[in-house]
Every structure is written in C-alpha cells, then in structure tokens.
Amino acid sequence: MLFQLPNDDQLYQALLNRDPAFDGRVFVGVASTRIFCRLTCPARKPKRENCTFFETASEALEMGYRACKKCHPTTSEADGNTAIRSLVSALEERPDHFWQERDIVKLGLDPSTVRRAFKRQFGITFLEMARLRRLRNSFTTLQAGGKMIDAQLDAGFSSASAFRTAFAKHIGLKPSDFCADAPLKADWFDTPLGTMVAVADATHLHLLEFHDRKALPTELGKLFKTAKGQMGFGTTPALEITKAQLAEFFAGDRAQFDLKLALHGTAFTNQVWRELQDIPVGETTSYGALAKKIGQPNAARAVARANGANQIAIIIPCHRVIGADGQLAGYGGGLWRKQKLIDLELKYNRARLA
C-alpha cells in the first residue's frame, strides 16, 4: 500500500503537539492567513476549522498558500534552521577542530537549542557529528595505508589511547584489528542522507549502514567475528558497484538495485529480509502484513525484530515498513532518513504511473 496519512483530526493533534514524525511530509494550510506551515512550526496554532492538510509543499502552493517565514516549509529543516545551517557550514570549514559548547556560544547560539535541533533532524548532536567527522579522517588515512600515528593525528587526537578508545566506541573495533590483505574490506563514503559504512568481499555486500547508527559497532563486531578477523580497509568491486548504484538511486536514476548480498541472519530473519526486497518501490507495508506474507500471521513482533536487525540499509528496504496506523515506526538510521527515503521512492512510483 502507498503511505496513508492519518485523518485530519489526528494531524491537527500532531500540529498542536508539534510532532516531528510528520516534519517535511505533511503540511498545514491556514485559511485565515493563506499561509502554509510545517506541523512543527513555532507559530501560534490556528483553529481546527481553518486547517487543510497537504502531503507536499507543492500542493499547498498550487492551492494559493504562501510559505511560512518562520518554519520555511519549502526547505528541509537543515536548510531552514539558521543554527543548523551555520554550524554545518562551520564544521565544513573546520572539520579537524575539537568543537565544544563554548564554540557554539561564541557563534551566538544556545547549546541546548542546538542540541535539540540536531537531535531532531539528524539523530545526533552537533558535537557528536563533529567527533564522527574527525574519526572519519582517521578511517580515510588507514584505508589509504597510512600509519596509525598519522590516523590519530588526522582525527585530531594528541593521545593514542584516547584515539583508540574513540575509534573502538564508534566502530566497535580497534584500528589495529584491521588487516591490509583481508578479503572483507570496509569503506566509508558520503550520500545525500549522510555518511555510510559498507563492508564487502569481491562479489557480495555484507553490511551497509549509516555511520551514526547506534547498532553499527555491534554489527561490525559480529561480522568481524564471523570473518575470523579477516577485515581490512579499502575497496572491492562489490563496494564500487554498491556506491555507483546508490549514487544513481539518490539521483533519481535507479529504482531497483542489482547487488549480490551476503545475509548473516537466522533462517527466519533472512526470510524476512528477502520479503522486504519484494515490497514494490514507492509502497509501504506493516509488520503484521509482512508476517502474513511469510505465512506466520502471529509473528508480527518477530518480524519487527528482524526488520530492526537488518544490516544492509536501503538495499534491503526496511524503511518501507511503517506502523499499522500509517505512521512512521522506528528506523535505526533515524526517522528523518526514513521519511526522505519514502518520499524519494514515492517520486519513482509517481513517475512510473505518469
């Protein structure tokens, strides 16, 4: 089924609650002002009878509504929020800087407000984002065959022990655990939805996750154990194909993936993951419906656990599973990414039906 919006009464309650689950995917037009907003808009809430809800900003514009100047509904929150925009730009200019709260204050911003805005939009705080950016520098250095001390300095750590601790906390492994001639290679690359970590051998993709997913260290640790420590930094033909197809997907040029996948779950989990790949692009389903599809109608909770255990994001489209009430359910990469993926795939669907 295509994503179904809740009824208008539920959406009005979400507007009153400034529910971030609908940010960017539902908009409200106010008849008394002819202005349309995000449901998270900080402006005074309109009366119920003055509200009309739209699935896209373009629909509101077509009906003659003007974009609100407070919540900037025609941009993503990252673009519309001045604090987010200025800090992301500052991070791009100074990626190696050890950012602290006092730096945020020097920029005239309130740390607590910034913390909430980044958590809502990206699932992590700005300071966590800055730390991950520094660690990425070390990952790139090691991938290129650089020495450990160079990776440590590139990450901005003066202490070797602090670098190893930070690296292990984020990756789940120590830098020294990786070996140069291993058949499994780990790579780290950018996408429009953030940095992703991928692991593959010459022919099969084993893991694809957003770098800030909390389960990433555990997943890498299990994969490392399964591979008996044979994991290194670098790339493989399978990784290059993965990156190329993802680039085409985000550019709007590829709706389907053609990749060989190595599944590391139980028989039941692998069955759920294969069923996920059969959900048509631009459509969504529920855990209950998925359980029925695999012939186990009472296993909705087990299906949900298998869905959450997916370690090949996007390619195995667990983002296409939503709550039975039509609302977004949990997603390890963050609900904002789930929303963006569903929106992108809806465009593919509309283009196919046009």
Automatic annotation (TrEMBL):
The keyword Transmembrane helix does not apply. It comes from the Bacteria. It catalyses: a 6-O-methyl-2'-deoxyguanosine in DNA + L-cysteinyl-[protein] = S-methyl-L-cysteinyl-[protein] + a 2'-deoxyguanosine in DNA; a 4-O-methyl-thymidine in DNA + L-cysteinyl-[protein] = a thymidine in DNA + S-methyl-L-cysteinyl-[protein]. The active site is at C37 (nucleophile), C318 (nucleophile). Its cofactor is Zn(2+). PROSITE patterns: HTH_ARAC_FAMILY_2 (PS01124), MGMT (PS00374). Binds 1 zinc ion per subunit. It is an enzyme of class 2 (transferase). Residues 107-181 form the HTH araC/xylS-type domain. Keywords: Activator, DNA damage, DNA repair, DNA-binding, Metal-binding, Methyltransferase, Phosphoprotein, Transferase, Zinc. One of its GO terms (molecular function) is zinc ion binding. This is methylated-DNA--[protein]-cysteine S-methyltransferase.
